[in-house]
Fold this protein.
Amino acid sequence: ILQSLCLGAILAGTAIAQPEMPLSAMPDLPRFHFEALAYASDQPGESRLDVYSEVPYEALHFTKQGDVFRAQFEITIDLYDSTEKMIDEKWWKETAETRSYDQSVSAKVGKLVQKSFFVPPGSYTVSLQLKDVESEKSSRSRRRVTVPDFSAPSFSISDLMVVSYLDTAGGKTSVYPSIGDNVGELKGGWYLFFEVYNKAGVDSAQFNVLIRNVRGDIVKSDSFQQMVPQPKGTCLHLENTDQMLAGDYMVDVRAVPMATLHNRSVNGVAALRTRPVVIRWHGLPTSIVNIDKA
């Protein structure tokens, strides 16, 4: 299902994650991407880890059934702890449907699927397998994630989500995650979304956003101030990287309380999260980091 939450509700930031390990795939099954997103949880001693995967329709084998093109696929998610012991597994079947043949073979149309795990803070490996039911061909990808402890600090922020698009239907704004780190084709800017966890009574905070290149140089910076509700709130910040060179970057968000409602001693507590982003444009080889050198 497409996961969306209103801005007034809880939405995950991106778990600190290392790049995906090499994908093992059959030759005609294209690469898919997934993200692991970490939330604060109401469960004592646990955070919530949501795993999202975007399955492009060209990765599936559709058959025509009446006026509809239909494909089925299976998803298996295995979760391993730091000792590589499997601690949880989820398996389910999904159906993709479209009335358009062009969509059924498109790399730009796909289905977003999601499952949740409740885990103690720590380091994990997430393994996701996609199997096309019609062809019986499958591919698998793994990545390591670190799930933060959101319960310990009095003021903290979730990791950072890149937003694919916003939906304002029905007077509510819903946020849909972008799967993968590439923001190069999100023209006109892209949004960072994250939660603020505020047990300290902070009434407002300043958020400093830095984008660094592979050498660690700051290539773009921005800041904004926002009121912070208790015990949690959300931030949605627009970034525009249309004028930046193609390449690999890191985004840092540092949140600094401006004041507190009940206890000014917590003023000065800061929270920091970081995530990678990539700027690639369609048709640009991935080996080209600086387009001026192409």
